[in-house]
Amino acid sequence: MRILAVESSCDETAVAIVEDGRRVLIDCIASQVDLHRIYGGVVPEIASRKHIEAIYGLADQALQNTGLTRGDIDAVAVTYAPGLIGAVLVGVNFAKAAALAMNKPLIPVHHIRGHIAANYLAFPELKPPFLCLVVSGGHTLIVDVKDYTKMEILGTTLDDAAGECFDKVARVLGMPYPGGAALDKAAQSGDESKYSLPRSKPGVNPYDMSFSGLKTAALNLIHHAEQIGEELDIPSLCAAFSGAVSDTLIPKVIQAIKQTGYQQLAVAGGVAANSRIRGDLTKAAQQLGVKLYMPPLSLCGDNAAMIGAQGYYEYLAGNIADMNLNAYATKSILGETL
């Protein structure tokens, strides 16, 4: 089954063709990073307009470069939530038009389910059940993936997402957008023991997390240094911040793996590209004796291939939409509107 997949939830316009949920025939991406860099972050209105400009050409490019025709496409999958509402609407409206014009099924895909499914593309042998740590710019979740479309959220951030904190601290430090990647690079040469930053304490749910206190502590440290004219050791501060985020995530993942008894651990989302988190997860998996699945960096960020992968399993589960499909800025991975 060949699925034409569309992703436009933030600042990447992407169209892919995925076969049977596991094989990427093509994944075309038009990045807006250089455009938004001058503003220090994504400007929603500009992102939406650029999606409109790029999406039709990307779809044509995907078909031409694979030698396929519209008749070779069996279904259309699209990110319908969550994301920047104007940006998501562009993708949803295009997908609805494409499905209607080709008389093909329309498959709605939750963006975070797509991130989890990126592992199916990188590791064809991976099958549920498994535990997945999702860390992205807008979400931080520990998910029990019971089946391809049946999931349970064991823990989540109670405030800010880990990725949002990385980007905010990087911006205050004067690093270019996207800040998380720049901060990670700077941390490579730092001494994390030079600065002391807090780790969140679990609340009622031991798997829940909090990052707002850590973000505030880092920002206060930066501003205080500026006020008294003290020079910051930026690489060491970046290393300390990365270590604090990882120290918040990893123990909870270890506890969740022990509770579920799973022998498979996956990671997903843009922050899954962070070298400190990847290294600490690798060590934890080795100590636990479980198999770790970490997608390549190319599949950690937003892409349409992951939407096509999850779309295949949503289709098999009977999750088909009609022309009334709407876009949502916020929606739980379980399908509940927040």
Explain briefly what this protein structure is:
The protein contains eleven helices and ten strands.
DSSP strand (E) fraction?
Answer: 15-25%
Q: What is the count of β-strands?
A: 10
The CATH superfamily title of the largest domain: ATPase, nucleotide binding domain
Query: Stretches where pLDDT falls below 50 for ≥5 residues?
Result: none
What is the CATH fold-level name of the largest domain? Nucleotidyltransferase, domain 5
Strand arrangement within the widest β-sheet reads 3-2-1-4-5
Query: Which secondary-structure class do the elements indicate?
Result: alpha/beta
Order of helical and strand elements: EEEHHEHEHEEEHHHHEHEHH
Any descriptors?
five-stranded mixed sheet; Nucleotidyltransferase, domain 5; 2 domains; 338 residues; alpha/beta; globular
Structure characterization notes:
The chain has 2 domains: 2-116 and 302-316, ATPase, nucleotide binding domain (Nucleotidyltransferase, domain 5, 2-Layer Sandwich); 125-294, Nucleotidyltransferase, domain 5 (2-Layer Sandwich), CATH 3.30.420.40. It has 11 helices and 10 strands. It is α/β, with parallel strands linked by helices and 338 residues long. The model has no long low-confidence stretch (mean pLDDT 95). The strands form 2 sheets. It has a 5-stranded mixed beta sheet, sandwiched between helices. It has a 5-stranded mixed beta sheet with strand order 8-7-6-9-10, sandwiched between helices. Helices cover 45% and strands 18% of the residues.
